[in-house]
Amino acid sequence: MRCWPSTGYVAGEMTTPNRQTMDAIVERIQMSFAGAATTLMVHLGDRLGFYRILTDGPATSSELAERAGCSERYVREWLAQQAVVGFVAFDADSGRFELPPEHALVLSEDETPTTFAGGFEALAGMYLSLDRVIEAFRSGEGFGWGEHDVRIPHGAARFFGASYRQHLVDEWVPSLGLESRLEDGAWVADIGCGEGVTTVLLAAAYPESKFIGIDLHQPSIEAARVRATSAGVQERVEFEFGDATSYDGGPFDAILFFDCLHDFPDPVSAVANARRQLASDGVVALVEPFAAADLDENIKTNPPAALHYTASTFLCLPNSLATPGGAALGAQAGPKALAQILTEGGLSSVQRVAATPEHAVYAARPK
Ligand SMILES: C[S@@+](CC[C@H](N)C(=O)[O-])C[C@H]1O[C@@H](n2cnc3c(N)ncnc32)[C@H](O)[C@@H]1O
């Protein structure tokens, strides 16, 4: 049985340590240290606006410190780390640090299809939840999405938002067969909408349609309302505090679950409620973190699963287990378990209609 891909180590077969295997795992550990340390440094630079300032042009540590209103000594240390990991370029002659334009696209921008900054924010939030999670491992109990630091909901919305901007309107809506319906004017519910990134993206793209976003986390609902107003779509978008298993307001032409069904304590009841609230010719769309069929496949073929299992451990399982008897599906439940939830909830014709390295999109319809 292999315990880690590509190190060559086979559990149960080692008699004396193999030098190459040791070197391989040590290299991985060093990469993990660098990644974890860089996560903190990127979040710090993001919070203090360093990347945005560096888009104005190369700067010495004194120039960046002055523009950011920070202490030069600290800024110098941050720049040095960022240069070592290659996030900024250092010119030894001028003493200036530069953020290449391609790096700016992924680090300094927000509300774009290429930004990664929110991922670092969410990871920093997970470090803050560590003690709670250790307690949860011992007790088997959970705690809700709203009990994390605000970096979790906010960072997650920023991080997932990039993928939604890239794929939702141009690829996923057509593959769900929803394009003409949304163009003509549909009534759509976005369940577990968080800060409303998907709801507002859809509302902006389809001016004839109306939307409601529902979520159990009041601060996210408030952030979603601000987002709708900033995008000028507030007349056609409502956001309401509510549980996935008990809202009404149907019949909806489409009910959407983005990165949330596996978080729910009772996903079957959430699907059953969607079934009750769905028009007879409506569609339920389920967008979930991409997962292979099982753990073995994830190990062999799905590198993003390392991030998904971590988010699952820190966020998804605790939220589901905060309710006694929670289903605890986890963020890598996989296609078979998801199809079963959709069918047990009263839907049929479950189909995977799209996939990216991060997400899988399923469509299901009433029986
Ligand atoms: C990972 S976030 C996804 C948010 C948003 N859909 C997105 O993709 O950015 C999961 C969301 O599910 C919400 N949630 C968890 N349990 C819920 C429930 N029972 N009913 C409604 N929303 C719930 C959380 O409050 C959180 O906003």
Strand order of the largest sheet: 5-4-3-6-7-9-8
What is the string of helix and strand elements?
HHHHEEHHHHHEHEHEEHEHHHEE
Pairing-aware structural class of the strands and helices?
alpha/beta
Low-confidence region ranges: 1-5
How far apart, in Å, are the first and last alpha carbons?
42 Å
Mean pLDDT rating: 95
SS field, number of helical segments? 15
Oligomer: single chain
Bound molecules: S-adenosylmethionine
Give descriptors for this structure.
disordered N terminus, 16% strand, 367 residues, binds S-adenosylmethionine, two-stranded antiparallel ribbon, globular
What does this 3D model show about the protein?
The protein is an alpha/beta fold and 367 residues long. The chain is 50% helix and 16% strand. The protein contains 15 helices and nine strands. The chain has a seven-stranded mixed beta sheet, with helices on both faces. Helix 12 links the parallel strand 6 (252-258) and strand 7 (278-289).
Question: Outline of this structure?
Answer:
The protein is of the alpha/beta class. It is built from 15 helices and nine strands. The chain is 50% helix and 16% strand.
Write the layout of secondary structure elements.
Layout: H1 19-47, H2 50-54, H3 61-68, H4 72-84, E1 89-91, E2 96-98, H5 101-107, H6 117-128, H7 130-139, H8 151-175, H9 179-184, E3 187-191, H10 197-205, E4 210-215, H11 218-231, E5 237-241, E6 252-258, H12 267-277, E7 278-289, H13 295-301, H14 305-321, H15 335-344, E8 347-355, E9 359-366
Parallel strand pairs: 3-4, 3-6, 4-5, 6-7
Antiparallel strand pairs: 1-2, 7-9, 8-9
The structure holds S-adenosylmethionine (SAM).
S-adenosylmethionine is lined by residues 145, 156-157, 160, 192-194, 197, 215-217, 220, 243-244, 258-260, 263-264, 319.
